[in-house]
């Protein structure tokens, strides 16, 4: 009924659309970050605003010398200053995407979350979205939150649903199937997230989240394997056909993220949302393929300022 | 340094050892249970004590007629009575393994947990262990708890470590590498299980759990992918080489269980422990291959009464 898309196709669409997004990078010192930037430049996917301190200056200048038309370098005194400057470039509308280089994530997040100079959307909550290409699944799978919110409240679950369905609509068409993940189908006071899920199911029925299908509580197998839903007699359109998995807590989300990577040969892309522009904060252990996919996802879902 | 074993090899060892375990089955009515029993009989792996009520009588008699030397049938009036009788057969030493047929798990558990007539080990806690053959992993991986204890306390984590390492020792040799799973390497008051982990790491250093290696908090990737631990500079012998994963909560454990099955093509075997004999409680959505593996694991780790 609808097209989902892989990262390769996303990259090609970005290229042919010709709307190069402008990416502000805080402290682009390490090899992985450099590799991702060079590849994006070669493929004509984005322009870069590199914010360097003394230690990342050589790397930044090196990149600019190779592609001076598409790279600008700014110089700041230390890591904290690079984070603030990169954030300010997004705030001023000079950049469409923010990307972390060799920087402690906390340092970047402090600048992002800053009440006065940060880039949080009004009234929103910071959250993390991952998109995964898993060989054993028929389409791109979005999930959240594997990295930021430890135990979402009902309101935070609603924000997460809004963020993930927004991303879905930018890269797919059709009605997103959202699965609310738990270990059984039971709603129970013992598991407060299932109480949130019940509230969300009720509100989804009242059309509170626009045109989406929501199902749950259900486990990962019921959400992604049609056979399992049938055996259990679950008739939800989400069962066996999920586009988006909402996890009850950060441990469960993180386990999913790491397990599909290690045992499912998945290629993942991650970014932060709740901000006025997507923020790419790949971690040290991510492959450079995964970091490149994250940048593609961020550029494909960013609004042109 | 040591041999781990797959389910196929375990089955062959059981066969050649010739010590057929005796399995009490409560209400063996459904096709899957029947299939598993028939296959075990054909391969000469176990003897069966089938406890049937009116609705499962025909199935039980059918199995007995095919293999009268290795099958005994008991008749009870309803599902609750079949559960009690099957448990009593374990308690009296007539059976080495307990297996659930077509029965609500709660009904069987009530009989298992019964203070007077149940089969809990003294002072122990009921928990669930899964063993997984994952094509992308080099050895059998044990993990817990994906099905019973929602949020283990420090004491319950210690019981889970004892159960999983006991099972490991029965089917492998060498020192088990136990990974305490979290989403980062940080110990934090915000995540009470990481406080338990710190206590466990300390006690492991004092040799409280025998000859085992424990590492954590660490994520699934660090535990099972050698490259990731190296990048993060983690020197634990557990990193990249885990035999056992201990999950912080039931949601995370269950997500791992379902994810390796759906996306990692894993074959899993599960059983309950903390009881005087292993209890097989496969769920409706498990494949019959998985149910058969569960029975093999239970028989291979059961003590002969």
TrEMBL record, chains A, B:
Sequence ranges assigned to domain Phosphate acetyl/butaryl transferase in this UniProt record: 83-298
Record keywords, A-Z: Acyltransferase, Transferase
Keyword Transferase: yes
SUPFAM superfamilies named among the record's database cross-references: Isocitrate/Isopropylmalate dehydrogenase-like (SSF53659)
Highest taxon in the source lineage: Bacteria
Protein family per UniProt: Belongs to the phosphate acetyltransferase and butyryltransferase family.
Protein name: Phosphate butyryltransferase
Organism: Xylanibacter caecicola
């Amino acid at each position: 009924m609808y097209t989902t898309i892989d990262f390769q196709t996303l990259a090609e669409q970005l290229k042919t659309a010709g709307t190069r997004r402008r990416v502000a990078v805080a402290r682009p010192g390490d090899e992985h970050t450099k590799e991702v930037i060079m590849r994006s430049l070669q493929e004509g996917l984005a322009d870069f605003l590199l914010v360097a301190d003394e230690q990342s200056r050589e790397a930044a200048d090196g990149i600019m010398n190779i592609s001076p038309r598409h790279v600008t370098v700014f110089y700041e005194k230390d890591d904290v200053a690079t984070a603030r400057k990169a954030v300010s470039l997004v705030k001023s509308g000079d950049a469409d995407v923010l990307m972390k280089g060799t920087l402690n994530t906390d340092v970047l997040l402090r600048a992002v979350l800053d009440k006065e100079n940060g880039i949080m959307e009004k009234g929103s909550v910071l959250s993390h979205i991952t998109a995964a290409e898993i060989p054993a699944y028929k389409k791109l799978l979005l999930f959240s939150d594997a990295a930021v919110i430890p135990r979402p409240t009902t309101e935070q679950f609603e924000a997460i649903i809004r963020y993930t369905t927004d991303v879905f609509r930018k890269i797919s068409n059709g009605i997103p199937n959202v699965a609310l993940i738990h270990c059984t189908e039971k709603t129970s006071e013992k598991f407060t997230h299932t109480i949130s899920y019940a509230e969300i199911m009720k509100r989804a029925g009242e059309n509170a989240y626009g045109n989406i299908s929501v199902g749950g509580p259900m486990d990962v197998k019921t959400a992604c394997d049609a056979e399992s839903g049938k055996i259990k007699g679950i008739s939800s359109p989400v069962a066996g056909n999920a586009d988006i998995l909402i996890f009850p807590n950060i441990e469960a989300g993180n386990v999913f993220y790491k397990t599909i990577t290690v045992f499912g040969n998945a290629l993942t892309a991650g970014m932060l949302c709740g901000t006025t522009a997507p923020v790419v904060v790949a971690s040290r252990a991510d492959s450079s393929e995964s970091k490149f996919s994250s940048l593609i996802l961020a550029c494909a879902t960013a609004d042109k300022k």
